[in-house]
Design goal:
- This protein is mainly beta and 788 residues long.
- The protein has 2 helices and 73 strands.
- A hairpin with a 2-residue loop joins strand 30 and strand 31.
- The radius of gyration is 29 Å and the shape is globular.
- About 1% of the residues have low confidence.
């Protein structure tokens, strides 16, 4: 989540930008919806503007005047819209646009062209006077105090060129700046309309008071020779500014890389009190009290109330510490939103506690998907290195971080016989969950310190206590006791470790492993390995046909290879991929008809083969040519597939039209079913930090049955294919006749009889019936979604 914007006139209305998508919330982040309809490269005039511009995947140019709710195609005469690399909008007159063009070689720099439109993109004119044909343009900045003053940063060493007439004429204004050093950014001085700062790569900060005609170094007190990665001016006291320098312990022995100046940059002082490992990303000011400021970093959020003299962490409830953006409500600064690599979190108490608010946000890089084999509506995903769970077939997701402590996840496997047992591979080792991901425990006994950086896991389907783990730096490990202890085993030669492990489902002593460019086979549970494939290029995925395990597939760049004899010989399959840019990332088999298989590809979406891979057909309606990292199939309904992509999880197949949404509120005897008020026999309550509710009305509303036994004091509930049984006062329930702890983290959570009504633990019952449960702390409401 790269940026979050709060509407200054209506703070409950938010916009979140993920790079390729825009999401809106009208209820303070409780729910989000995507509004860009596949349009990417979104640009806005300012944080308060409702005018957006963007491009579709085929290069067409679009405009929205209502913050993305509706989009209109723009003819854009005079420009090749497919070559537009970036749009810069005049902050004062948003109908004036500038377009930077992609270079002919397709470099990330913006090539040799700048175009201008004065009518919101309908017509364009190329700006050439004073621009060299071969210049690689890095960025374009507009002075918000003099919007006819434009500045262009040219490649790594050429410096800055300026136009004072809106782009008609240009001149170089690099005199006085260090030669051969790239310009990182330009920041305008709010005290002087002609003032600006140039942040260089390794020579510090330079200030100009005359629009760039002359420059003066402002580096006293900053470490010499170290790159600057950030420069922020206090909006209420512009002479106060902060500089973030490179992360170099040789220059910054205490690890603190934040500096402050209170005199416009003439003198800088290092700030202290920041944790050594906090790599600072940005500084954000309280809009009403500028002495209060926040730091975002890879270690979460830090807060200072004395202009940076002392700091305190503000991470309670912030399950993802990789904070990229922070937005503060200008009317109520205690209300803030943090954009992380895993989505959005909200606080209403100045950062003391945070709550995840990602309902409806789907634009995440999903690398791994897994399906509960017994309850296929329960899915797990690794997205942005975090673990998520859906209990309603992917309709909604919740992050699972209880005990993972912010560890970056790379993989997840499910015990096929006891699906409530999960394992996660992370950069802090292997974690195990005994309750479907709600709580996790590190299982690293026997793993070396280097071996904690785990990449992949595989489980023996016949003896699930046997697990294999690959590490990035220290080879392979095996456990015979569900991860309680690990032992190192023989490892195929590799510089970066084994990235994929698969186990033969019929002969589980046979394993396959892929390294950077080779496939190895073991026939003795990993004790020794033999190379069976050395293709040209990397191997990205491995799969075994479950019906014919002697048939093995290896996904490579441009194709997939098939072996019908356990790797002895291989043959290429014609998949129609471009060898230099597309690869097979995932392979899945229809559990009923294994000759039917699916391939997730990079750049070609999902391909289907009905004949063991002999021929392939794309099936990408609604998906497009997405990068598909993982494909999984509903084992009971194989017509339902899930694809994990760079833009979230997509579902293929029939969608139930009978989804019900139920809302309850603590203390209220009314629940709302699809928006209609329905009476409850008793109000939900909170006890032992958990929600208890009278579940009869809810279960019966969903189409289930509830049986109460007065003599045994038990409640038997049935919904769909599942049953849940609990006893008053007991902390063990039965899900499909199997004993499960109602709340492993809190044994005091039990069913109770209160005022003659039986009150049951909400999450235990509903989630085991496949419902999604979302708690809104601010309003004390519970939203339950159920799809049969």
């Amino acid at each position: 989540m790269y940026n979050i914007v709060i509407d200054p006139e209506n703070p409950s209305r938010l916009s979140a930008y993920t790079g390729d998508s825009v999401f809106h919330s009208t209820d303070g982040g409780e729910n989000w919806r995507e509004v860009n309809a596949g349009i990417a490269n979104i640009t806005t005039a300012s944080s308060s503007s409702s005018i957006l511009y963007g491009k579709s995947p085929d290069g067409a140019f679009f405009r929205s005047t209502d913050n993305g709710d509706h989009w209109t195609a723009v003819n854009a005469a005079g420009i090749v819209t497919a070559d537009i690399g970036a749009i810069v909008v005049n902050p004062v007159t948003p109908r004036i646009l500038y377009a930077l063009m992609v270079s002919p070689q397709g470099y990330l720099t913006y090539g040799s062209g700048v175009f201008r439109s004065v009518d919101s993109g309908n017509h364009w004119t190329q700006l050439a006077t004073g621009l060299a044909q071969g210049d690689d343009i890095i960025s374009l900045a507009i002075n918000p105090h003099m919007p006819t003053a434009l500045y262009i940063v040219i490649n790594e060493t050429a410096g800055i060129i300026r136009s004072m007439d809106g782009g008609d004429h240009w001149m170089n204004v690099s005199a006085g700046l260090p030669e051969g050093d790239g310009i990182r950014s330009l920041v305008f001085d709010t005290r002087i309309s002609a003032g600006l700062y140039a942040v260089t790569g390794s020579h510090g900060i330079f200030h100009s008071t005359d629009s760039g005609d002359h420059w003066e170094a402002k580096n006293a007190g900053l470490p010499q020779g170290e790159s600057l990665v950030g420069f922020i001016i206090d909006p209420s006291a512009p002479a106060t500014m902060y500089a973030i320098v490179g992360y170099d312990y040789s220059v910054s022995p205490d690890g603190t890389n934040l500096f402050r100046s209170t005199d416009g940059g003439s003198q800088w002082t290092r700030m202290h009190g920041i944790p050594n490992d906090a790599y600072i990303g940005s500084v954000v000011f309280d809009p009403k009290t500028s002495s209060t400021l926040y730091l975002t970093s890879g270690e979460g959020i830090l807060r200072s109330t004395d202009r940076g003299v002392t700091w305190a962490t503000r991470n309670v409830g912030l399950d993802d510490l990789r904070v990229i953006a922070l937005a503060i409500d200008s009317d109520t600064p205690s209300h803030m939103y943090a954009g992380t690599q895993s989505g959005v979190f909200r606080t209403v108490d100045g950062g003391k506690t945070w709550t995840e608010t990602n309902t409806g946000i789907t634009d995440m890089n999903v690398t791994v998907l897994a399906v509960n084999p017994l309850i296929p509506s329960t899915l797990y995903a690794v997205a942005q290195n975090r673990v998520f769970r859906s209990v309603n077939g992917g309709t909604s997701w919740s992050m699972l971080d209880g005990g993972l402590a912010g560890a970056n996840a790379a993989g997840i496997v499910i015990n096929p016989r006891t699906p409530s047992i999960l394992y996660a591979a992370t950069d802090d080792g292997v974690f195990r969950s005994m309750d479907s991901g709600s709580h996790w425990t590190a299982m690293n006994s026997g793993l070396t310190q280097k071996g904690l950086n785990t990449r992949a896991l595989a489980i023996n389907p016949r003896t699930p206590a046997t697990i294999y783990c690959s590490t990035r730096y220290d080879g392979l490990f095996r456990s015979f006791n569900s991860g309680t202890t690990w032992t190192a085993i023989d490892t195929p030669p590799s510089d970066y470790g084994v990235s994929c492990l698969v186990v033969d489902p019929i002969s589980p002593s046979t394993l396959y492993a892929n390294t950077e460019g080779r496939v190895y086979r073991s026939t003795n549970s990993g004790t020794s390995w033999t190379m069976v494939l050395n293709p040209k290029g990397a191997v990205n995925s491995l799969a075994i046909n479950p019906a014919v395990p002697s048939t093995v597939y290896a996904g490579t760049w441009g194709n997939a290879l098939r072996s019908a004899n356990k790797g002895a010989t291989w043959a290429a399959m014609n998949m129609g991929l471009a060898s230099n840019s597309q690869c097979v990332m995932s392979i899945a088999f229809d559990p009923v008809t294994p000759a039917t298989m699916y391939a997730g590809t990079e750049g070609r979406g999902v391909l289907r083969s009905p004949n063991n891979g002999t021929t392939w057909t794309a099936m990408n309606t609604g998906l497009g040519n997405a990068n598909v990292r993982s494909v999984v199939i509903n084992p009971r309904t194989p017509s339902i597939l899930y694809a994990g992509t760079d833009g979230g999880v997509f579902r293929y197949g029939p969608v139930s039209a009978s989804t019900k949404v139920i809302q309850l509120k603590i203390g209220s005897t009314t629940m709302h079913v699809d928006g209609k008020a329905v009476p409850l026999e008793a109000a939900p309550i909170i006890m032992n930090s958990r929600t208890l509710i009278p579940l009869r009305s809810l279960i019966e509303t969903l189409g289930g049955r509830v049986i109460w036994s007065p003599s045994a004091r038990t409640v038997d509930m049935f919904l769909g294919e599942h049953s849940v049984d609990v006893a008053v006062g007991g902390n063990i329930g039965y899900v499909n006749d199997k004993g499960v702890a109602i709340d492993p983290a809190n044994p005091k959570v039990v069913p109770l009889i209160i005022s003659g009504r039986t009150m049951l633990p909400l999450r235990f019952v509903t989630e085991n019936f496949g419902c999604s449960v979302v708690w809104a702390a601010a309003t004390k409401t519970i939203t339950i979604t159920y799809t049969p």
